[in-house]
Design brief:
Helix content is 62%, strand content 12%. By secondary structure, the protein is an alpha+beta fold.
Length: 380
């Protein structure tokens, strides 16, 4: 089950945003389970064996579960949340295999078999894993049980492997169905978003879609310690243009400019949308400084190629745009609103037909002017 890019990237980003809050309680319960089992081992197993099992559970599994739990809360670890859960699942499965092996000489060892069953259900249903890593980890446990726990005819060895086999089948089917339902819901939301989130005047996404997308890539940038940028493109002297040529011509010009700007959002996580009456916005995920200038130049070129006449005295013979860019490192504690504040301030303080970029990295803020004027520039 996989969408074509960039839809797959959008789906995975949405899953990454939702999963931490979903798996937080199961991770707390997993820590409790490990603690209770370690306490029971101390009472039910020989001292030397109990020490070995507790070293595995409390020294290896519990710390990883705790790290995965911490990664579900906002902070520096959240960008590693999915990776930590995958590592934790693999280690927990390997630890369970070792426990099955260590206790194979204790007769039926039913307690370990039920622990294997609980871990299997966790892997498939409660840790937010994909089907492939869950199936791989759970299959290792099942293989160990068949290898070490089928040597006699006790009830535990008769029923345990059979129940664990069905737990794997049920878990795999349930995991597959949950992912399929998640993808179906995602597609429905995308269709609804496409219908409801389209600006009627320009045919491109509206401000609501832009704000949602910016919030999403900002969170991803925080998780991955990367940056985000907003480019704001404003049509120069548009009110005077509208008075001179009429609303119908102005609407057509706005639509053409909007689609020209949208054509410059070519990477999977970049998106263009109508920002307000005369402005089109571009959200850029983790752009390099050179890429920002490239996109600004591309916007300039695409609008210039439209060659929309504008005989207003302040204009230069054709419709032009002003471009402002705000670029911020997505540190915890900052929000995407900082980007919008920077870019609107940069645009309002700049002269028409020029591009102003407001760059902030760490606690350093500086402003620079890109190439301009851009009224009749040739394609770059």
């Amino acid at each position: 089950m996989r969408f074509a890019d960039p839809l797959e990237a959008e789906f995975r980003r949405g899953q990454a945003d939702r999963t931490p809050s979903i798996v937080r309680l199961p991770l707390w319960l997993a820590l409790l389970l490990v603690g209770v089992l370690s306490m029971l081992d101390g009472r039910a197993l020989p001292a030397e064996l109990a020490l070995q099992t507790n070293v595995i559970r409390l020294g290896l599994v519990a710390p990883l579960l705790a790290l995965s739990l911490l990664a579900t809360y906002p902070g520096h670890l959240i960008r590693f949340a999915a990776r930590l859960r995958n590592i934790t699942a693999g280690v927990w499965a390997a630890a369970t295999v070792v426990l099955v092996w260590l206790t194979q000489d204790l007769g039926p060892g039913g307690g370990v078999l039920w622990e294997a069953l609980a871990v299997t259900l966790y892997l498939y249903l409660l840790l937010g894993l994909g089907l492939a890593p869950a199936l791989l980890s759970a299959s290792a446990i099942l293989f160990a049980v068949f290898l070490f726990r089928t040597g006699d005819s006790t009830p535990a060895t008769a029923y345990g492997p059979v129940l664990l086999t069905f737990a794997n089948i049920i878990g795999a089917v349930a995991s597959f169905r949950m992912e399929r339902v998640s993808r179906a819901v995602f597609l429905e939301r995308e269709v609804i978003s496409l219908v409801v989130g389209t600006d009627s005047d320009t045919g491109i996404p509206n401000r609501q879609v832009f704000d949602t997308h910016l919030r999403s890539i900002w969170r991803q940038a925080q998780r991955e310690s990367k940056s985000a940028a907003v480019m704001l493109v404003e049509i120069d002297f548009f009110e005077a243009f509208t008075r001179r040529y009429g609303q119908l011509v102005a609407d057509n010009a706005l639509r053409r400019v909007a689609h020209a700007v949208m054509s410059c959002a070519r990477r999977p996580l970049d998106r263009a949308a109508r920002f307000d009456d005369t402005r089109i916005a571009l959200a850029l995920f983790d752009p390099e400084a050179e890429f920002i200038e490239t996109v600004a130049g591309r916007v300039r070129s695409e609008v210039a190629l439209l060659d929309i006449p504008n005989e207003e005295p302040e204009a230069k013979g054709s419709l032009t745009v002003s471009v402002a860019i705000a670029y911020l490192q997505a540190h915890p504690g900052r929000s995407e609103d900082s980007l919008l504040d920077e870019v609107t301030e940069a645009l309002s303080s700049g002269a028409p037909e020029r591009a102003r970029v407001a760059v902030r990295a760490e606690d350093v803020s500086e402003t620079a002017i890109l190439r301009g004027p851009w009224s009749r520039a040739q394609p770059s």
